Amino acid sequence: MSSKRSSMRASSLRPANPAIRAGSGLLLVALLFLLTACGGGGGRGGGPITPPPPPPPPVSISEAEAARFLTQATFGPTRADIARVREIGYAQWIDEQLDPARTPVTLVLPHLQQVVANGLPEGDLGQAHRRNAWLWFAANNRDQLRMRMAFALSEIFVVSDFESGQAQIPRVADYQDTLARNAFGSYRGVLKAVTLHPAMGAYLSHAGNRKASADGKVVPDENYGREVMQLFSIGLVERNPDFSPVLDAGGQPVPTYNSAVVAAMARVFTGWTYAGQSDANYGRVDARSYAPMQCHPAFHDDKPKTIFRGIVISSGNDCAADLEQVLDALSNHPSTAPFISRQLIQRFVTSNPSPAYIQRVVQAWTASNGDLGRVLRAILLDSEARTASSDPAYGKPREPLLRIAHLWRAYQAKYVPPADGSLRFRAGNTGDLTVSIAQDSQRAPSVFNFFEPDYRVPMANGSQGAYAPELQIVNESTFTTGHNQSDALLWNYATTAAPTANTNAPVLDITRLVQLADAGDHAGMVQDVNLLLCGGGLSPASVGTMTRMLDSLRSQGRSSSERARSLLLLALSSPDYAIQR
Predict the structure, then answer these.
(1) Where a domain ends, among 72, 98, 124?
(2) Is the dihedral of CA 497, 400, 402, 19 positive or negative?
(3) How far apart are CA 417 and CA 165, in angstroms?
(4) Which end of the chain is more exposed for a tag (fewer CB within 10 A), N or C?
(5) Domain contains 407
């Protein structure tokens, strides 16, 4: 299997805060131990119209329950969002987020274009501007559910800015925006938009793909034809609605395709290239285009193509008609709904959804013909999402990038950009967070994402434990550099003062924590962190440890602000925070 891969780098920041550093090793041990354990109507005759009764009030939702829901559905709860969920309920909150008239769509490319129009030289614009802008929008903008969904889709339909130069910045940004625009549309619509986007065409090399030559010296590129099946739709083996594998008479999983199907799929994806090219310059490298790719019949394989399940794609040299047929075949394949639904559940709720949970979401998919908004609604409102299981395998490791956005949201980070409006942070490795936390926006090392959905925790006896995709990028190095990245963002940018212009990172508002520290209310400080960072999920042991740490720091004469920052850093490093439950 060919794919794009890049090596990971790791580096260290400055040593962590002395008040916390000594406990980091114990925290890591504890984390690893935890994971491996694991109608009214009007009357006739023009009489007065009786108004309909008011809707029933939503079921009472506690602060902790609202925070837990928002941890799944957003980049992190805020006090305002907690109050809103408690006021209108989970379902109505989702409805607000699904409605673009009430919750406008966040787009990154227009922001970058405006920054250049405001005076930033185009040659100074880097991918870090795009990545930092997306992260800042994720931490601040209203369309939280859409941005979370688009982020989840970006980890399935992977395009990376690795090995891309300055010219490709608008293209990658538009790909990101394309996922946002289509986040609540049909799965088939997303698949078509992804297939024709030049960022994907360049990344998986079907831009400029040609039919075979008579002499055999030119053969269609198979990269996209294979990955669109393996990663973007039907997977490697056929699946039942509950994601269990379909078995043959010998009890073996039934493959969804073979090498002949890959070759046929490659022929389907011939004849597409960057918008605006003539036949004479077909396939010529175009780093700047971000318009959908266009069909050139002269370069499309016009022979019938037999793909999976014996389906024949045969529209002559009409590559657009062939594409529509194959999109129908991929979207209607019975394995697509469970294959994609399970990954979406993993991104929002739990790494190990039960077969029944997957099947209920697949039922929503089937009933709505793959409407992703309705699928996401089913994921978040399912009983397994709304009630945390006591099963140690329930929940999901928090993605490193989401941790940063979560912290900024919880403590109302502020940033005063330069006059051109650019968002370019310089705290620790914020220019490229893959250096410290092994993850950044649209910067996966390969088409297989930062981590794979089937990664499982290795057990002491050599067997495979629970599924935990995010832990594929967690090791001693990334734990330490991630801890230090959090330290860099907290120790230098958490304050009670208003931000000033051109700071190197957003400034966290820890006024509430400092006021509680001034009052000696260490229990109140821990309660605040428990709600906003852990959704009320801190164990009694962790609550006791954090409270004793604060008491100890006060006895040493440490300031209120130091106590507040130390508490936040300890919470972010705790096993309770590591697993979203």
Answers:
(1) 98
(2) negative
(3) 24
(4) N
(5) no
Percent of the chain with pLDDT over 90: 87
Predicted TM-score (pTM) of this structure? 0.91
* Signed CA dihedral, 95, 101, 104, 105: sign only: positive
Q: Is the pLDDT of residue 16 over 70?
A: no
CA distances from 226 to 5, 48, 262, 451, 476 (A): 16, 65, 5, 19, 35
**How many domains does one find in the chain?**
2
Instruction: Indicate whether 92 and 211 sit together in one domain.
Output: no
Taking 50 as the threshold, does the pLDDT of residue 42 lie above it? no
Average pLDDT over residues 22-43: 39
Across the chain, which distance is largest between two alpha carbons, in Å? 84
DSSP string, 334-373: TTHHHHHHHHHHHHHT-SS--HHHHHHHHHHHHHTTSBHH
Q: What pLDDT is recorded for position 462?
A: 84
Host domain of residue 79? 63-98
DSSP 521: -
Neighbour tally for 167: CB within 10 Å = 12
Render pLDDT for 240-262 as a digit per residue (tens, 0 to 9). 999 999 999 999 999 999 999 99
Instruction: Tell me the C-alpha distance between 233 and 335, whole Å.
Output: 8
CB 196 within 8 A of CB 171: no
Residue 321 in any domain: the answer is: yes
- Those residues whose C-beta lies under 8 Å from the C-beta of residue 246, and which sit 6 or more positions away, are 237, 238, 239, 240, 253, 254
> Which amino acid, residue 569?
L
Question: Interior CA angle at 8 toward 4 and 12, to 5°?
Answer: 165
β-strand pairing of 508-509 with 494-495: parallel
φ/ψ bin of 46: left (φ > 0), alpha (ψ from -120 to 50), beta (otherwise): left
Report how far apart, in Å, the C-alpha atoms of 214 and of each of 210, 218, 241, 248, 315 are: 12, 8, 44, 39, 20
Q: Name the β-bridge partners of 273.
A: 294
| Of 145, 152, 62, residue with least CA distance to 102 | 145
Closest by alpha carbon to 138, among 425, 427, 408, 387? Answer: 408
Residue 575: inside a domain: no
3-class SS of residue 306: strand
Residue appearing with tokens 């056929």: 238
How far is residue 484's CA from residue 471's CA, in Å, rounded to a whole number? Answer: 18
pLDDT at 57: 53
pLDDT in tens, 279-299: 999 999 999 999 999 999 999
Asked whether residue 87 is domain-assigned, the answer is: yes
Domain ends where: 287, 317, 332? 332
H/E element, 458 = strand 456-458
For CA atoms 280, 285, 288, 293, the dihedral sign is positive
Whether the CB-CB separation of 489 and 17 falls below 8 Å is answered with: no
